[in-house]
């Protein structure tokens, strides 16, 4: 890190838009002109699936499952954000712009 005084040897939190999964899916549906089928699972079901992936040495799906579970149970929200300290004046992409870039790259 170029400016260690910002992190003070601790965690640094950076975020972009705070949006729901429903909003993200809705934006993809709009820009791709498709309808996705969404299923929901409980935190317990997610933990079970995560454990199964790990048992089968499927680490990437396990990591993805862990991240989804953490966000689903509300523990993925940063206690504070250091965006302005790290990148003064930098503007993150809006969800609509991010999805447009992603869709156009496919």
What would you say about this model in short?
With 106 residues, the protein is mostly helical.
Description:
The protein is mainly α and 106 residues long. 55% of the residues lie in helices and 0% in strands. It has six helices and no strands. The chain has helices spanning 4-7, 21-32, 43-55, 59-72, 83-86, 95-105. The model has no long low-confidence stretch (mean pLDDT 80).
Low-confidence stretches: none
Helix tally equals 6
Oligomeric state of this protein: single chain
The rounded Rg comes to 17 Å
Shape: globular
Q: Calculate the mean pLDDT score and round it.
A: 80
Structural class of the helices, strands and pairings?
mainly alpha
Helix-strand string: HHHHHH
Produce the secondary structure layout:
Elements: H1 4-7, H2 21-32, H3 43-55, H4 59-72, H5 83-86, H6 95-105
Helix pairs in contact: 2-6, 3-4
Features:
about 0% strand, globular, about 110 residues, mainly alpha
